[in-house]
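Run folding on both entries below.
>entry_1
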Amino acid sequence: MGDYRTEKDLLGEMSVPCDALYGIHTVRARENFPLAGRPVHRALVHAFGAVKLACAQTNRELGCWDGEKGLAIETACTEMMQGQLDGHVIVDALQGGAGTSTNMNVNEVLANRALQLLGHAPGNYDFVSPLEDINRHQSTNDTFPTALKVAGILQLRLLETEVVALLEAFQGQEKKLAHVVKIGRTQFQDAALTTLGREMSAYADAFGRDRWRIYKCEERLRVVNLGGTAIGTGVAAPRQYIFKVVEKLRGITGCGLARAENLIDATQNADAFVEVSGILKALAVNLLKIAGDLRFLSSGPDAGIGEIRLPHRQAGSSIMPGKVNPVIPEAVSQAALVVMSNDQTIAQACAMGQLELNPFLPLVADALLGSLDLLRGACGIFRRFCVEQMEANEARCRQHVENSTASVTALVGSIGYQRATELARQVASTGRGLRELAIEQGLVTEEKFDELVSPQSVTRLGTPIKKVP
């Protein structure tokens, strides 16, 4: 078969395309796991390149290779880290074997790329071997979780940038809308007066907490088990290698990584991923709640609340002319729901680890990195296509303030609870506006009413105590 080469493994022989950088282990994995229909996350592949580079540099310093061979291997690892070999890591995101298929796909690609750099054909493993060279002093069980933690840290940093931008967008709206008095609502019922600016400030503060939690997540992922090999005992790895390899990886990635004091614990227990996923779920909860609020406040626009106007992004109906839907908050809500379901998946997968290893880390990786992608994208479109362009419907807000019984609460300090209650009853029974009735009955002047429902009055903390003469 002129277009194929023959490779061997424990189970026998298989044909591999001659120019493929992957090998027999990858071919078997593709045959065995037609599940997700997508390859492992690219961030995980890049992180694997960094891990393999750290291992290669450490092995070179220990005298495992000559200069030319070591340089070729390190060049291949650098190319993978930079995304140049993405198309060759083709195993399915979901796979049995605790990630062995991913590790072997990476090993084969790096070996064959190094062979190309050395002037040899792919598959000529006498010169560079996926197992004897690329995987030297390693196991899937320490390289996979380490690569996942590195990928997680780097993706968390990107997410943090988007969350900061989103909270700053809400802070901008807080200042812009500080003068717009509106009805505050509890349990979907009119409650008391507030301002649109105050509502926006609450959203900004929620995302501020998310930003801080995400920043602290790096602490949860920085402790790695690289050097622990199969079960955390460091079997088949030299002591010098174990002490050096994480230091190399720290320098390559710029992440504050540290070797776990208990490598056995770090190899078998995956609770750090559960903790980080919980933080991501908290962000998803805030996104879902706040997106829902904006949908509600923009409802109508003619027969709903209509207190804010969201930017029109696309036509909303194939049958109802002129209809425009809040598609950005809807999309953000869907992303948030997936992240919440991913959190449950991660919790169960991490709980199902047995004894010295968790075989379900491929699922954890796919769910965790998928959540990070979704949240980063959701924060980005929420900010750019919704929050930054959002506007107040000041006339509708003013109409609600003047006609809602919720505004009666602002008058209690001046006219007393009993009179305010009677006034609210009259508004409800007559359908007339609160402002009109209060002024007509001489309970307040026009100036006093406007003062009591001004932005300054409804946003100050508490009511000033009246001085007794």
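>entry_2
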Amino acid sequence: MSNRKNLIKIFALLLLVSLSSCKENEKKEVVKEETKKPNILFLFTDDQRGGTIGAMDKYNVQTPNMDQLVDNGTSFTNSYILGATTAAVCSPSRAMLMTGRHYFNIEPNVYAQFAFPKEEKGQSDKLTFPEYFKANGYKTFATGKQHNGEPWVERGFDYVKSAFLGGMTTHYGTKVKDYTPETGWSTPYKDTEKFSSEVFGDAAVGFLNDYKKEDPFLMYVAFTAPHDPRTPPQEFKDMYPNEDMALPENFMSQHPFEIADEKIRDEVLLPFPRTPEAIQKEISDYYGMITATDAQIGRVLKALKDSGKADNTIIVLAGDNGLALGQHGLLGKQNVYEHSVSVPLVFVGPNIPKNKKTAALAYLHDVFPTLCGLTGLEIPESVQTEDLTPVIEGDAKEVRTSMLYAYNSWPGEAFKPNINNHGGHRAVRKGEFKLIVSSKNDNYTYQLFNIKNDPWELINLIEDENYNNVKEDLILELEKLIKETGDLADLTKKEFGLFDHPEDYNFKK
């Protein structure tokens, strides 16, 4: 009887140990599942103005797949770029996105394009988010427009398929190259039959179909549309008859006063004065390009779902800058009006609230620290901008109460003596109000808008004495932000004093 009791005790002890072991294994599995890093899919469009997503209810453009992302994620309705120091706004915009730094503190080359030679590898101000995530266990992939030089691509990505290295190109016959660290760069090739967005969509879908590794991935899918030349595939062009295109409320035949870069390439694509018919065609072509690109985004999202990895993937949808297309009499993006500095910015993924729209002020280059926040990575010291994660997760209403916008003209080549005829802009947004200071030759022009009541920036309140206190407050805020961001602009000097010493042209080394 005693032996039997002992056997029962031993069996009970073994059972207890077995159950404890099972529970411990279950705990390990839970921890393993909780700490599994999410994948990242970054979808990037070129010259897509903020609000040009159907679900934003601002412009009548059809984007069913972007709408799906808005419905499934958190959208920033006040998302912007800081600005640029070159008419090729895309280049500094992408440099800021990649590094999380203000463009004043990223040294460009002599042509004011934000690229750098290979020997500069390792500088803290050149650390990019693909490079950082790659160093933290991510397999990285890129396709599409790369506007900051081969070294950034080589350092940041394990796989590159159909990369366009440049600022703008035709959308049929886009010259692209492939890259891997083992094989280097391929010979350039073209796909003359397919629209550019389809070429890049093919590359992204191919990566998702072929990826079998357990490591998390980061995909950077950078379309060249809807950047001009605006040549949408005919089926998408047909969706937007020219005569049906509504003119924007702030359509003007020409800008009301002389400003920087008013006769550069972007602006002379149409003659002056602008006509309603000409602008309607531009809008039609632009919307066709956006919808054609949306179709390719749909293909990529489907491939992600089919891969079984969608539930553990953070998706970011963004654009690199806006575009005027007839607003304020302008066509391009070389200004600081809402139409040119606003961009789409949407986050979708695990634990990100669905169908949420926030008015919190956000910069495009907040993406780097925000991806760190969403994935639990420490934000590098080189990053100068803000993590939007508290806003996304509902822990904070905002991460900033004001923001700076800046644009300086630059001739697109080495310094020239007549550069002081080009001009620039500085602007500040705080609360409902936005102050724009424009410099051209010896003239300064001030504009004050109530963005909440006047989103089209039509009613200049600068001469209204009722807003004197608002103006004074915004000027002080603008001067504070200029100092904090490393901007060398001086609002008391001609051309902001930026060309007094061309060797220091508003950049810090």
